[in-house]
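Run log, item B.
One chain of 329 residues. Sequence copied directly from the ordering sheet:
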Amino acid sequence: MTRSLGVALLAIALLAAAAAPVAAPHATDAHFAGLLNAPPTMVRVAGEDGSWHAPFIYRWQLVNQLEQRYEEDRATRVPLVWFSGGRLVRSSDEGAAPLLLLGADSYGRDVFTRLLFGARTSLGLAATAALGAMLLGVAIGGLAGFTGGAPDEVLMRAADFVMVLPAIYVVLALRSVLPLVLTAPQVFALLAAIFAVVGAPVVARGVRAIVRSERRLDYAVAVQALGASDIRLLVRHLLPSARGFLFVQITLLVPAFIIAEATLSYVGLGFPDPVASWGTMLHEASSNIRVFADFPWLLSPAAAMFLVVLGVNLVLQNRGSDEPVKQSL
């Protein structure tokens, strides 16, 4: 049951990210000047007189500029239009009554749209960085565990050095020497490289221990006695024994990198506008102290991050509980 829930949460997140160009009602940089911090739009099927209609919305009307308080103008229904302009659903009057399923941010941008496209950016970055950490960690750990001696010591000491570095200060120092303005691809590549380097030492140490242990077993000695090269022994026989460990590590690194991207946005290493990511959305929301009380829909990226991390942990927990049963069989 728990694994099914975890798989469902991850599937929803991936589907939302993949379908963002169609499911999002607007572009990520679309501004609605008269709807700054507007609340979520309620989709209705019943009118004021109790009669039933096709799905429609009411237009938000600003009643207090200082408090940014809105009320529905229920004099006119605004029908929804389906499969129009390459979008799944949108308002029939985008100028006066846009469809804002999760409200608008302080710039008047659709939070739901930015949440979907932010999933593409944040999940894509986390997956790329985790894959990079896996490849780098497997290469370092496998070589260190197989060779032993001086190469082992050098590689492991280098990994230890990376692990003890104060990451946030290193990132700040790195940001100070980089150009003031970075493009979205540059930020993506830079963050993916940073995360891969930071995550690789943990993977390397685990792979090293597994390779060193497996190399002493009879099957490894027999393979080598039959004339297999060192590379074949390492790649075809020793490294596959670390698959279970690597699965656990990648399911831990992906949510860790999602959270790390949000953290680095606070030190100015986030994606530039109008690129949406969960980290930059939270960074923008944190600049307004009224968010928690008056504009809670701006915290939807935090809820999305929580659900993704929960899904990964449920899948991982279920796999961990199954391992003893498999081993006993």
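Observations after the first pass:
- The radius of gyration is 25 Å.
- Residues 320-329 have pLDDT under 50 and may be disordered.
Flagged for discussion on Thursday.
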